[in-house]
Prior knowledge:
- The protein is of the alpha/beta class.
- The protein folds into 2 domains: 2-163 and 316-347, Medium-chain alcohol dehydrogenases, catalytic domain (Quinone Oxidoreductase, Chain A, domain 1), CATH 3.90.180.10; 167-293, 3-Layer(aba) Sandwich (Rossmann fold).
- The chain is 27% helix and 26% strand.
- The strands form 3 sheets. Strands 3, 4, 5, 8, 9, 16 and 17 form a 7-stranded mixed sheet that branches. It has a 6-stranded parallel sheet with strand order 12-11-10-13-14-15, sandwiched between helices. Strands 1-2-6-7 form a 4-stranded antiparallel sheet, with no helix packed on it.
- Helix 5 crosses helix 6 (192-203).
- The model has no long low-confidence stretch (mean pLDDT 97).
- One zinc ion binds at residues 39, 41, 58, 164-165.
Amino acid sequence: MRTSVLLSRGARPTALVEAELDDPRAHEVVVRIEAVGVCHTDLVTRKALGDRPAVLGHEGCGIVERTGTAVDTLAVGERVVISFASCGRCGQCRAGHPAYCDLASALNASGRRLDGTATIRVDDVPVFGAHFGQSSFAAAALADARSCVPVGDTPPEIAAPLGCGFLTGAGAVLNVLRPGPGDRLLVVGAGAVGTAAVLTALSDGVEVVVAEPVAARRELAARFGALAVASLDDPVPSVTHALDTTGRPEAITRALALLRPRGALAVVGLGPATAGIDVRDLMLRGLHLRGCVEGDAEPSLLVPELIRRHTEGRLPLDALVTTYPLDDFDRAVTDQRAGLTLKPVLIPPG
Ligand SMILES: [Zn+2]
Ligand SMILES: [Zn+2]
């Protein structure tokens, strides 16, 4: 079917172009995209692909328009958020940890389906598609039904980032660190992932400290009840749990030092590959250091939980979102880099 897609080529300005979307395979659906978040990984992938034409976007939300012959879990007309792709059959998937699926990189980062076929063609030429099993910077996207989670009547611009960014921050708190009332969580970096973690922890009655250099982001976290400091060089109380969203080695070592005995630090930021860790301190104080991808979430479980909290007014995710037309992607990215917006969400032409 014909659809319009936002085509990226390296650092060149993006453009909306006409494209041919493949027909859905047996387990796939076509989703008419209503909103799609911009996530850091889109920008990292764009850089890594160089000049190769690509359709990115992996926080799609929209209405199921067509279903493959074997899809019995979704109905045409239903609103879904599209999360990352996983096989559903390997040991990690069956144990409820699809972010660590054996086929994660082939399904999410190869630019094609698992069988090597392309999902999107522009001028009859296949382009990098199937990004995180979707490529949803587009008016319509193909996705495996398994990656789609129904979101009811949740506004699409709120539901879209639940596919990745919000899922990552909230899941790091609820699935990995699991602080409770009486605990204190340090969040380093209050971008979209960090702020989603902050709000999720606050919604469970956890005391939260945020370290974030951008004043507007500090003010937002403080407005919802977190103690906000500009840097970890400021006086910060000791904490039971910490989450680093920056990937900066010095932030990771400082966060470890701020943990109380038996405290836990989870890292979710992509930074340099190595950091100097005081292994003796780790051992003597019984600290935990954990990595975490996609909040170690099973989207079909965590997305409904986050929507429930949002509906109850306990998780004000709408405060994080700014909408832009899809073809204003470049401005959205510039605004995000300048700290003017936390989570840009793009709206395709209707
Ligand atoms: Zn799997
Ligand atoms: Zn993402």
